[in-house]
Amino acid sequence: MCQANPGNFNEYEMDREELIAKYIQGKVTEQELEIIRELIQTDEDFREELAFESGLRRAIKQEERQDLKSFLAELEKGHSSQADSENLQTINHQHKGSNAKKILQFSVLGKAAAVLLIGFGAWWFLNQSPDHNALYNTYYEPYPNIVAPTVRGPESTASITAEAFRLYDNKDFPAAATLFEQLTKREDASYAHFYLAQSLLADGHASEAIEVLEDPNWEVPDNLRTPRNWYLALAHLKIGNTEKSRPLLEQIERANSTKSGEAKRLLDEMK
Predict the structure, then answer these.
(1) Most exposed residue of 41, 116, 174, 224, measured as fewest CB within 10 angstroms of its CB?
(2) Which tens digit of pLDDT belongs to each residue from 91-133?
C-alpha cells in the first residue's frame, strides 16, 4: 500500500489541483487514491479544497439531472442579502485565506454547493471511492465456465485444462491463473487468454488482465469477441481509463448482442 507523505507533496508527479481534478473525474489510479485518502486524514487545507470542489461538482450534476434551478430558487427564498452576508462571513472565518475567496466567487451556485457539502460531511470524503470503482463493482461478475464444466470425481484433474477450470469454478483464481497462463502457450487452447484475464480480474489485477486481453498474438474466438470487449471495457473502467472503456461499450451497444442493454445502461451512468 502506498504511504503518502503530505508534508512533502512535491515528491508526487502532479500538484494538488491536478490530483483533485483527476479524483472528481474518476481518473485516479489506486496509488493516487491511497495518496488522496492519506491527505484527507492529515492535511486540513487539502481536505477542505477537495470537499468544496467535489460538492460543487455534485451540485452541477444535480442541476443537469434534477433541475437544480428549482432547488436554488427554494434555497434563496426567504434569505435576505444581509443573511447571505452573515453566512459568507462565517464561511470566511472557518475556511480562512484562499478557500474563502474561492467561495465568494461562486454566487448562487457556490452557496448551493457549500450547503450540500455541509450535509455530506467529512465521512463521505473518507469513505467514498471514485464513481468508476462503484460502477465496476456493480457490473462485474466472473464469466461462467463454458469450456470445460467441472466433472466430479478423481478423473476430473487428469489434464491441465480440467484442473485449471476446476480451480476457476472453485474460485481459487490465483492458482487458476497460473495454469491458464501455461495454456496460453498452446495453439489448441484459444480460450486460455480469456480465462487467464478472468482469473486476474477476479483476483483484483485489472491492469494485468488488460495486457492479456489486448495481446496482439491472441486470435480471439468468435464466441468470445463480445465477452472479451465487455471485460476489457470493465477493466479499463476499473483503473479509471474511461477514454478506452467508452468506445468498447459503444461497440457492444451497436452490435445488438446479449450485452447491448447492459452496455447502454453503463454508458448512461458514466455520463
Answers:
(1) 174
(2) 555 555 555 455 445 444 555 555 455 444 444 444 444 467 8
Distance CA 15, CA 271 (A): 26
**Its pTM surpasses 0.85:** no
Three cell numbers, residue 79: 434569505
Q: Is residue 1 part of a domain?
A: no
Q: Which long-range contacts (CB under 8 A, 24 or more apart) does 73-82 make?
A: 75/108, 75/111, 75/112, 75/115, 76/108
236 and 163 co-located in one domain: yes
How far apart are alpha carbons 268 and 138 in whole angstroms? 14
The 10s digit of each residue's pLDDT in 59-82 is 555 555 555 555 555 655 655 455
Residues 6 or more apart whose Cβ sits within 8 Å of residue 134: none
Q: How far, in whole angstroms, is CA 227 from its chain's centroid? A: 20
Count up the domains in the chain and report the number. Answer: 2
